[in-house]
What we know:
Elements: H1 6-24, H2 29-58, H3 61-73, H4 75-83, H5 91-107, E1 112-118, E2 123-128, H6 138-152, E3 159-162, H7 183-191
Parallel strand pairs: 2-3
Antiparallel strand pairs: 1-2
Helix pairs in contact: 2-3, 5-6
Amino acid sequence: MNDADPRTLERDPGRIEELIRSLEALSDTRAREQAKELVQVVLDLHGAGLARVIELITTAGVVGQTLLEAFADDDQVGSMLLLHGLHPQDLESRVQRAVEKLHPFLGTHGLRLELLQSGEELVRLKLHGNWQDKKLSDKTLKRDIEAAILDAAPDVARVEVEGLAEPQARPTEVFVPVPSIPSRKREGILTGKT
């Protein structure tokens, strides 16, 4: 049994990307193509094996359903299932579940999050209520909401959160050069007489 260190597994996606870039940089075209084919064959083999595991589990009734839910909730297993298109929950269900997980935290601040749209290209959310916590900015709150959605649904391209205050632009001062003020008016301004 492989008892992989979770910290090592968290670094794997970065290491995988690094190795892919190294493969792409190979000058030997044949070696590069063979390496890419090997990676694809291994992924296909693992995908087929996972699909068979899911198929067997679904025939196990309530116990199987409980296992599938545990797989869906597990970050590592859920990510692998997503990679192979085998996640037991569809995208909308995963997003809705992430929104529900945010409710307790947001509720303590008098906020409520509503799911407006859910798709691979865009997830649109609306935040209701007034954010009053000075320790946590709108920008940080938006980042945390987006991160929660993308953790549950990494296959989403973009997350938009409506209802947060937009950064206020600094008011621009109106500068009127003194020579543009008519001379009698200018004399009054300068002497204090108008």
